[in-house]
Amino acid sequence: MYEKVLTKDINMPESRKLAYYEKVGGYRSWKKALKEMDPDAVIELVKASKLRGRGGAGFPTGVKWGFVPKSTDKPHYMLVNADESEPGTFKDRLLMAGMPHSTIEGAAIGSYAIRANTCYIYIRGEFVREARILEEAIAEAYAKGYLGKNIFGSGYDLDMYVHRGAGAYICGEETGLIESLEGKRGWPRTKPPFPAIEGVFRCPTIVNNVETLACVPYILERGAEWFAGIGPESGPGPKLYCLSGHVEKPGVYEDAMGLPLRKLIYEYGGGILNGKKLKAVIPGGSSVPVLTADEIDVDMDFDSLAKIGSMLGSAGCIVMDEDTDMVNTLLNIAHFYRHESCGQCTPCREGTTWAEKVLHKIKSGHGTMKDVDLLYEISGNIGTRTICPLGDAAAMPIESFVRKFRHEFEAYVTKEVEVA
Amino acid sequence: MKPVFNESAEKEFKDIISRYPNKRAAMLPTLHLAQREFGWLSREVMGYVGELLELPFSDVYDAASFYTMFKLKPTGKYHLQVCHTLSCALRGAGEICKHLHQKYGIESGETSADGKFSVLKVECLGACGTAPVVQINDDYHEDLTIDKLDAVLDKLD
Ligand SMILES: Cc1cc2nc3c(=O)[nH]c(=O)nc-3n(C[C@H](O)[C@H](O)[C@H](O)COP(=O)(O)O)c2cc1C
Ligand code: SF4
Ligand code: FES
Fold first, then answer.
1. Is residue A3 situated within a structural domain?
2. Which residue does chain B place closest to A164, by CA atoms?
3. Which regions of chain A are under pLDDT 50?
């Protein structure tokens, strides 16, 4: 039986208050880090826990922290990625609104580990309420001496600020976020240099997702072994799953990493809306390859989903019932990526525009079989030679939808489908 | 008249710039502040932000025009951002859009004749579990039906 960690107390009326957080053990790990551990010991512990990033790419967190140079004369920065814009994803919002102090404590420990004295929480601009909640929580933490100068007499200083974005999916990509924080449009940077070496203000920088950091205080409190023992060995820990679309009970559900997808949909989600049948699921946010109804006997973790050709991504699971029009659905997704492409790279800018046009053409009944193949071809060309992974993110749904639901695209061409 | 921050906005601005190693990084928070104070970002307002941050107008315009939340033209008193991305579309965002179009006679990006309402179709608002979602000014309205939305809208004055 899995016992909840990240969201255990999140529905309590006072859960966002510092006093409540302290009552359930909050900030003990922060004290422990500062009093008993040096930064490298924190990094080693997080490495040993096998925590992998929850923002989408699943990179080992401790390893990433270890990339920050030990001795530089430049300041270091910790950036919390609270941009949460991948369609189907809404877990960080719950964490920040329900228990903001766990994110703050995790960010503080991470800042200490990478020797940063400044941390910015980059939150999507639309989350006005969550930004306010975080700001109030940060003010509480300063007042109690958890942030600021010479914390617990350790000689370590840390300032933490909330920085609001203003509506742009691409600012969730870590170098887009960095450019945006610097006051520019969110155009991703070519790598290398990687942010750990040269990030915001040309200084060593780590970008971590909210949920990733929220795990960290628990790792310090309960140990790396405890964390590594939850779920699959290659990427363990507590996990938040977002469930949306055609299910009876959409929402955020916490369980161990590796939750069976069928259980998420049928037990947690209460099954398909209005007793209908399942047609398809996108398991990890709209940019990962779609699964058909007979592919849902898979565990929700990095390796298991990769093995069947999809991805865990942000664990944003979008469910579609038997009546869902897959051409229309892909058009919705293609529109999103065309709208959000920053336009810097020709393959991404032109490819996303072209794909949307071809889909419009098919949907309006003017498509040919060649157009269906063309979609494949376009998707094969977007992902290559681009600055950031948005190109891939746009290509993967196109390729998988056309491959797995080709008959629906062809039905539009042969006019078996009534065109509206 | 040239836009100028009042005393309390000026204080907020001072606090904002104290948080960053350079003034340029204060761009987004300053634009948010200016938009709140002046309603939208006219040329004059962007020019003023440029003066405050010691940056040319083109830098301010370049940033402001990149983000959907910055208004380069005035919107209604109540600005409705309607999510039409996948999870919301699967749960009825299309009907919500159609309804708003019929109710106010405006398309996405337009403002009603009385200046009260404007509608903008936006991408995923990060609240897909409570789809469909409409953000009215700062506030999220979730798990909407047309009736629920009407009940909210008809109470606004
Ligand atoms: C187009 C795009 C959008 C992204 N959006 C987000 C986001 O909204 N939130 C997030 O945490 N990571 C997002 N990421 C992933 C980040 O680039 C980065 O990998 C992540 O913040 C690292 O944190 P982690 O190691 O803790 O997962 C996005 C990546 C891409 C390519
Ligand atoms: S891949 Fe697309 S979103 Fe990414 S930098 Fe290039 S154009 Fe911009
Ligand atoms: S799809 Fe509408 S909030 Fe995510």
1. no
2. B29
3. none
